[in-house]
Write a structure and sequence with these properties.
Largest interface: A-B, 57 and 57 residues
Oligomer: heterodimer
Order of helices and strands of chain B: HHHEHHEHEHEEEHEHEHHHH
Largest sheet of chain A: 7 strands, mixed
Shape of chain B: globular
Largest sheet of chain B: 6 strands, parallel
Radius of gyration of chain B: 21 Å
Order of helices and strands of chain A: HEHEHEHHEHEHEHEEHEEHEHEHH
CATH class of the largest domain in chain A: Alpha Beta
CATH superfamily of chain B: Thiamin diphosphate (ThDP)-binding fold, Pyr/PP domains
CATH topology of the largest domain in chain A: Rossmann fold
Radius of gyration of chain A: 19 Å
Structural class of chain A: alpha/beta
Helix content of chain A: 25-40%
Shape of chain A: globular
Strand content of chain B: 5-15%
Strand content of chain A: 15-25%
Number of helices of chain A: 13
Chain lengths: ~300, ~350
């Protein structure tokens, strides 16, 4: 973000606690000191107001990067994000753009209950006009966020509080990762695991177990971006392995996996040696109980069991 | 105690107000002409609707013309306007042509939004007009954002953010008031109070005085007679100046009246009497009263006024012909204007599939 603030004076960071508090999760730490209060702005707890304000400012050429303390709060700004940001270009016949980024964490697994554990990437992606990105590593997060900030369309950037503490190699120099480009995080020949976000880390762990204990070579495809969606990388992997497990931290009804499974069967039916399997969050509001929430979400144990089912 | 001034009332003779007293004859004619053009456009639109040329909803601005015309006549280079779904009047007042508006109503490719927006979603960013918004109160954060952008860029201008009396109870409006006051954004929230949020009267929907709610956010506020274009100009000039010069946001409630139902879907026979509407027409019509005033003061002749009106009718008729003759958008057009990147393929940086059918 600091690089993009330096690159373009129209980039401004707004959100709850992003400035003086240094960010609820310290994502914006040090930015206020470096760029000052005009560029790094604390907002009141007023998501509909400040997100809508950001959308309006973006129509006049400001490029707001807005933090939602939790993506779960998108519900109170729903009208501004999905009626205004997503639609205004269309309804104006292409006369107006909204170059806005809305970012923040969207995940379960932190025992904060149903109101704070939403993963709305499917809901967001079902609105043409917005782009949706879910990075899994620190390296990807930087390259994707830089692309998102330079994008002229509204980009929804969904992070994960449990990944904030995971360290990864991030080069000092500038680099961009285009939106809509999946990444094969592990090569394999027997099974394709299509996933994104924190489930990528779980899936990589499971791929190791599959290799060592079951002699199964799993390929892990990290979608990174939900819309646009790099289905070609998925299809290429399926053509190699002929078996697919899709892992997502989503409720199953009309989920990202549902869409990907549809596309695979539609475009690579003849390549499949087994039905596509998906592993989602267990279909209920997020449970609070700490040990049981782990079981509700995709975890290495559940992913392993699902992978073995696909291979059976 | 609020640090802001108490509301003022407009002058006894609004023609003598500073912003009005030096208007040239031509400028006065222009005010009358724009109001008449709105009236005739709306009447022609309603006829087109009745003739099944127009789909969906349509919310006529008839009766409220002095508000949009008074406000928008004050717009300078860095002033911006954004409004509700009852947007035809503002569109004409900022200078949009009747042809592209009528074509939009007809759903034609030559419409101002290429037939993709419809009646509630007119836009002209080149004229600093940002819509045309369908959700009650949903445009108010956007208008606040326009003001934020003006201040961020150091431009001396104001955002006129119009809303209806029904919108004042929406949370987004209050959140916008707070942000505007907290950050001293150059915005004037203009409540066009026509007395009814759809079919529910103000008394049955809103507690207290609408504009006075500004006090809770330490903003100054005013009310204004919306039938007198001079009064609108006088009060709005004061508030626009506050915004432009001091970055002070404020709320202005303009009391107006609509002659037609809330939309074409409202038969308008349940919540008010026909005689009430007739009374307004006879005594307060913004166009009739302004025309009479100009005739009385010798700024226009009866004949000149008739000529302006005739020209407005003819322009609306021509617009309907233009719309009728225009082509429809194509099925291929459905997926254009969704993403900037898709419409600018040579500059596309993302990859992957972006549409899913």
């Amino acid at each position: 973000m600091a690089e993009e603030l330096e690159n373009d004076e129209n980039v401004v960071i707004l959100g709850e606690e992003v400035a003086e508090f240094n960010g609820s999760y310290k994502v914006t730490e040090g930015l206020l000191e470096k760029f000052g209060p005009k560029r790094i702005v604390d907002t009141p707890i007023s998501e509909a107001g400040f997100i809508g304000m950001g959308v309006g400012a973006s129509m006049l050429g400001v490029r707001p990067v807005m933090e939602l303390m939790f993506w779960s709060f998108y519900s109170v700004a729903f009208d501004q994000i999905l009626n205004n940001a997503a639609n205004v270009r269309y309804m104006s016949g292409g006369l107006i753009n909204c170059p806005i980024v809305i970012r923040g964490p969207a995940n379960g697994g932190t025992n904060v209950g149903a109101t704070h554990s939403h993963t709305p990437e499917n809901v967001l992606a079902s609105h043409p006009g917005v782009k949706v990105v879910v990075p899994s590593t620190a390296y990807d997060a930087k390259g994707l966020l830089k692309s998102a900030i330079r994008d002229n369309d509204p980009v929804m950037f969904l992070e994960n509080t449990l990944l904030y503490g995971v360290k990864g190699e991030v080069p000092e120099e500038e680099y961009f990762i285009p939106l809509g480009l999946a990444d094969v995080k592990r090569k394999g020949t027997d099974l394709t695991i299509v996933t994104y976000g924190r489930c990528v880390l779980h899936s990589l762990e499971v791929a190791e177990i599959l290799e060592k204990e079951h002699d199964i070579s799993a390929e892990v495809v990290d979608l990174r971006s939900i819309r646009p969606l790099d289905i070609d990388t998925v299809l290429a992997s399926v053509a190699k392995t002929h078996r697919v497990l899709i892992v997502e931290e989503q409720k199953p009804f009309c989920s990202v996996a549902t869409q990907v499974a549809y596309m695979i069967q539609s475009e690579a039916f003849d390549e499949l040696d087994a039905p596509i399997k998906r592993l989602s969050t267990i279909d209920a509001p997020a449970i609070y109980s700490p040990p049981i929430e782990i079981e509700q979400l995709p975890n290495p144990k559940r992913i392993l069991a699902a992978a073995l089912e696909v291979m059976a | 105690m609020s640090k802001k001034s108490n509301p003022s009332t407009h002058s006894a003779d609004t023609a003598k107000a500073a912003i009005n007293k030096d208007l040239s004859k031509q400028e006065k004619h222009e005010l009358l002409r724009t109001m008449m053009r709105i009236r005739r456009f709306e009447e022609r639109s309603l006829r087109a609707y009745q003739g099944k040329k127009v789909g969906g909803f349509m919310h006529a601005y008839i009766g409220q013309e002095a508000v949009a015309v008074g406000c928008c006549s004050l717009m300078g280079k860095n002033d911006h306007a954004i409004t509700t779904y009852r947007d035809h009047g503002h569109a004409i007042a900022v200078g949009m042509g009747m042809n592209e508006q009528m074509a939009e109503l007809y759903g034609k490719a030559t419409g101002c939004s290429k037939g993709k927006g419809g009646s509630m979603h007119f836009f002209a960013p080149n004229l600093n007009f940002w819509g045309g918004h369908g959700i009650v109160g949903g445009q108010v954060p956007l208008g606040t954002g326009l003001a934020y952008a003006l201040k961020y860029k150091g431009l001396k201008g104001a955002s006129m953010t119009f809303l209806g009396d029904g919108a004042v109870n929406q949370g987004a409006v209050h959140e916008s008031y707070n942000l505007a006051a907290l950050w001293q954004l150059p915005v004037v929230f203009v409540i066009e109070n026509n007395g009814y949020s759809m079919g529910t009267s103000q008394e049955r929907s809103s507690a207290g005085e609408l504009s006075k709610r500004a006090e809770g956010y330490d903003m100054s506020w005013d009310t204004c007679d919306g039938h007198d274009v001079y009064a609108v100009r006088e009060i709005m000039d004061k508030h626009l100046t506050l915004a432009r010069e001091k970055c002070e946001p404020s709320v202005v409630e303009v009391r107006t009246y609509r002659y037609r139902g809330h939309s074409v879907a409202d038969p308008d026979n349940t919540y008010r009497r026909k005689s009430d509407i007739e009374e307004y027409r006879k005594t307060k019509d913004p166009i009739q009263t302004f025309q009479k005033r100009l005739i009385d003061e010798g700024s226009i002749t009866e004949d000149e006024a008739t000529q302006i009106d005739k020209a407005a009718r003819a322009e609306a008729e021509t617009a309907a012909e233009f719309a009728e003759a225009s082509p429809w958008p194509t099925v291929e057009d459905i997926q254009k204007d969704v993403y900037w990147e898709v419409d600018n393929p040579s500059e596309r940086k993302s990859t992957g599939r972006i549409f899913f059918n």
